[in-house]
Specification:
- The protein has a single domain (about 1-150), classed as Immunoglobulin-like (Sandwich).
- The protein has helices at about 1-15, 70-75; strands at about 20-25, 25-30, 35-40, 50-55, 60-65, 75-85, 85-95, 105-110, 120-130, 135-140, 140-145, 145-150.
- The protein has about 150 residues and is mostly beta strands.
- Helix content is about 15%, strand content about 50%.
- The protein has two helices and twelve strands.
Length: about 150
């Protein structure tokens, strides 16, 4: 029993040190795109670089990403690459040791390709990871977002 409690406490302590990415939700319509914030809440292990993937329905959505204020403040650049249809890899780094602080890390611009309203389309944040000023791994957790198609 003691071992199970110790393992559970260690997991909670580790999760408390992790940075967290949160993709906000939003609404859009045919011909009216929206912008979603990717917010970061840094943990005890402050990252200097962050990577994540966005997975979405490529038949319904077009997505492009740009650096947000938290990335710019830390003098970080955002690079993205399409891994395959519906999967975009995002890398936020810089040739410096500046820490990334809490705030809007990236802006996700979303356009709808269809004409049907009333749908909610998920956008998943996967494969999140980070690094610190010593090039050591930093845990990064992530929460998905979505867009709702309105008329």
């Amino acid at each position: 029993m003691f071992l199970k409690c110790a393992i559970a406490l260690a997991m909670f302590a580790w999760a408390g040190n992790a940075a967290e990415l949160i993709l906000d939700g939003g609404s859009l319509a045919p011909g009216r795109p929206c912008t979603l914030n990717v917010r970061v809440a840094v943990g005890q292990d402050v990252p200097t670089g962050i990577q994540f993937d966005l997975e979405y329905d490529a038949a319904s959505l077009d997505i492009r990403v740009e650096a947000g204020p938290a990335a710019k403040q830390a003098s970080k650049n955002l690079q993205s690459a399409k891994i395959r249809d519906g999967k975009l890899r995002v890398l936020i780094i810089g040739f410096n040791r500046n820490a990334i602080s809490d705030g809007v890390l990236a802006l996700v611009h979303v356009s709808y390709k269809g004409q049907d309203a009333g749908k909610t389309l998920p956008i998943h944040v996967t494969a999140s990871s980070g690094t610190n000023e010593k090039a050591q791994s930093v845990a990064v957790t992530a929460k998905d977002g979505s867009v709702t198609v309105e008329k």
